[in-house]
Structures are given as C-alpha cells and as structure tokens.
Amino acid sequence: MKNISYQADLCVVGGGMAGLCCAIAAARHGSKVILVQDRPVLGGNASSEIRMWIGGAYRSGGSVLDIREGGIVEELFLENFYLNPALKFPIWDSVLYGKAKAEKNLTLLLNTSCFDATMDGNRIASIRAWQSNAETFHHISATYFADCSGDSILAPLTGAEFMYGREAKATFHETIPPDVADQKTMGMSCLFQIRETDHKVSFTPPPWAYKFESDADLPPVSPDQNDNFWWIEVGGEWDCIHDTDRCRDELVKICYGVWDHMKNYGDHGVDNWEMEWIGFLPGKRESRRYVGKHVVTQNDVEAKGCFDDIVAYAGWSMDDHFPEGFYYRKGLTTVFHPAPRPWGLPLRCMISANIENLVFAGRNISVTHAALSSSRVMATCAILGQALGTAVARAIQEGCSVEQVDIRRLQQTLMADDCYIPRHQREVPALTAQASCNAEVVRNGIDRGEENLWIGGAGEFVEYRWDEDRQIREIRLVFDNDMNRKYHNMPCNYPLTQTKFKLPQTLIREYRIEGERSDGERFSLYVGDNHQRFVRHAVDWQVRRLRFIPLSTHGCEQFRLFDFEIQ
Description:
- Helix content is 20%, strand content 28%.
- By secondary structure, the protein is α+β, with helices and mostly antiparallel strands.
- The chain folds into three domains: 2-163 and 290-416, FAD/NAD(P)-binding domain; 188-284, no CATH class; 430-566, Jelly Rolls.
- Strands 1, 2, 3, 4, 5, 6 and 18 form a seven-stranded mixed beta sheet that branches. Strands 19, 20, 21, 22, 23, 24 and 25 form a seven-stranded antiparallel beta sheet that branches. A three-stranded antiparallel beta sheet has the order 10-8-12, with helices on one face.
- The radius of gyration is 25 Å and the shape is globular.
C-alpha cells in the first residue's frame, strides 16, 4: 500500500455540483484545494452515472424571468454546449473533469473515499481517504474542510451535529412536516434513458424484473417518451445511507418493469423506442443535514430569505416527496408547496454549529426537511458551493473565521464573479464610473434583464473616454446568454431528430477591444470564438480611450451586452 500526505487551505469532500463549484471557486481565489471524490467522475446526480438534468430557481416554462443561476454553474453549461453539442453524458463528465484539472491550485483525487478523521479539540486536524484503484491512502491536513458529499460523511467521523428525517410541525413552527417527527426522508431514484429508432423495436424484460400489466399498478402518471422517470423512487421509509444498495436492487427491478409496461402493455407511443441506458447508482434527494449557525426553515423560505448574510438563493418549489415514493397510492407522489422565486440562503447555514473548521454546501446544508425540499436542487447546490469556496478563500486572506468574513466584501466578490444575489447590486469600479461613456447601461451594475442590455448593430461599439491616460489592469464583460432559455443542460432521452447545437445564439462570438493612449500608441485585443457569458481579460495598458467592438454572434442578428467595465 502507498501513503501520500497533503497540506491544503481547503479540503473539499464530495465532487458533485456543490463540491466542484466550491473547489473551483476557492482555487481561483488563491487557496490551495484538495477535492476528494469517491466516484470516477464528477457531477454527482448530474453525472453519467445518474443522469439527472440540473434544475434550480429557474424552471423551464416558468413565469419568473432572469433568475437562472450564473457564475461557475452557467460557465459549465456553456462549456458543455460548446464542446458537447450532441449532449452525450460521457462527454459532459469530461467537461466537468477538464474544468477541475484546469485550476493550478486544485488537486483532484477521484475514486477516493473518506473513511476517518483526526480531531484536535473541536477542530478537524486531518482526514484519511482510500483510493481503491491505486491502493493508496491519502492523509489530508487542511485549514478548512468542506463537506459537499450530500450524505455528510464527515458528520459521524467528527461528532458534528446533524439532523435526519422529518421534524415535527411544532419543532420549528412549520406547516409542511408531520405532526410527529420521524426518521423518514424523500427517497432515491435510478433513472433510465431511451432512444428512438426508425423501426419497431421489441423488448424482453429480464426474468427478475417486476411486472406491471395495468396502469393501475403504477403511480398516477402517464409514462411516455418524454419522461425522465423521476417518480421511480424508493427508500424514504428505509435508511437512505446504509440501505443504498437495497434501494438500487428495488429500483432496477421497477425500471425494467416500467419499460416492459410501456413496451408491452397498452399504447405509450414507444413502439420505435429502445432502452439505451439504465443507472445502477441511485440519485439521492435527502439524507443527513448538518446543524449550522442558522437552521433555515419553511418560514424563512416563505419570508423570501431576507438574511443580512445572504450569499445564494433558491426558487424551486418546496417539492416534498412522500417517503413511500413509487408505492404511494393516494395521489401524486409529491406535493409542490409554493416557494418565493427567488428566496435567499445565508452563509451561516453552511457553517457547523459545533466543529470550528467544518463547512458544507449542497443538499446537506443546515435546513429543515421542509426547506430542503426547495434548496436541494443542483443549480442551487452549485451556487451554494461557489459562495462557500469564495468565503473560505476570503477567510484565509483576511485571517479570520468563515463566520467573521466581511460579508459585504464577500457579496461584492460573488457578484463580481457573476453570481446573482437577490436585492443586492454590484458596485461599479471607480475607473469605470469616472469615464464618459456612450452607453450608460453597460455600467449600471446589473447583469440580467432585457432593460439592462446594450443592443447594437453592425459597425456600432461601446466606448469609454477619460480626461487623461489611465492604467487598465482588467476588462470585465458579460454577454447575453439567453437567461430564459427553455431547455435543460442535458437530455432525458434521445429522439430520432435531435437538436445538435444549443449554445445560445445571443452570445457574442467575435469581438475586438481597442485602446489608445494620448500620444497615439494603440493597444488591441481580439477574441474570435467566445462561447461564455462572463469573461475577464487581464491587460497592462495605459489608455485615454477604450472601445469594445462586437463583430459576430452565435446566430443572433443583434449584439447584446450587459456589462463592459474596467479596473
């Protein structure tokens, strides 16, 4: 056996969307990060092993506009549309892997499971992890440990306070929970995917699959080729951690039984469809939840989460699945309790109540069962992760605890990194504000909403002028990424005729930035194949005039720009 030791600023345990965004954010802000992931791929429920599309505050077909999550998660979406236009899940895995490996401050350990922790009083001194394919023990010491594992693996290893199951109504004065507390949760799902062919395809189920000959044998749904089969769910009445394999065995039998029903019993419009893939790793909705400095409740959700230390937001309904899941027969298997869109999440719900250097992001944050039903979706988890990684990096820079970071500076840093924070506005750099500009809208500090766009045509440009030469170190651009697009980041099935290209046509693809000094010396920067919403350019120019000149888009006839700022 081999042993390797590490010393880091931050050790992130769990490589789902929360853990990945947490690790990338901290690394980009200068912290030395170790990311420990127990699977061979990143992405958690969004990975090729589970294949759930990423939902968040924005819901396809919803009426609330311009609340799609930005920052790193949108960067990942756009990178995927660019590199993976056919939207194949194994290539999506590679996009996530590539983003992690691109960070020089981030060490990625895949196939590595955390199994032990060494404590120093109420602090975590180190953890141990086992990398099975390399027969290697990893010993990781760090200033902070971020548990983004979903199941809160560090809780039983460190003595951190946590919750499990449904609280009673009276515990937090909520209306959604049962009258009496229990150990029940929302269940887990194994998904399957189907592909359309140009001919009729027969299906023979394995002998161990369940048999559902009648629609009455299924929950009250009408399965068809557009279904992602989220309702194939069990485990809420079992132990959603220790009974995971038991759940998988049950779920796979149900999945094959459902597909058998669709193919061989009744007309479900799938004569030409075949099963292409079935998951053997259940996707989880709920298990352990940490107790933090603040426990977010249903009442906080309904009050819009107006916290002083808001760093992220949610907007999914309080989508409370019945523990019986697939076997619930009294109506729909979930209740969609309304939630404001958006509502805020505080930094305090990601800081352990009793372990000094333990923080967390994802579905295991400090929320009640009722609040979790809105905060658990993956885009929300991703922006929580980015906020936490940024907060840890700021704490290390400021020489204080995460709880003591300058919250206003943290919020401004997040917004500067293209993270939307409800009811807050990004400050415009002084150098930008001091110039004259021919398009005031590009420096109003708001990077979403049609009313905040500069819209130009061929030959038009945005220009800043100063009364004397100014030193330019950074240029910040935010393009229109079609915030209200109505398609998911990845598909649930593969029809015969597929959309091959989903990069938003509104994005500016080609542009120049030109600067001119008082003595006539000129500077120029050209980008020929941009595919991102949020772009920063580091420069070292002295200029009196600076001009942004759009040249082409990914299909839109207009040039659409939210932000062009200089500092």
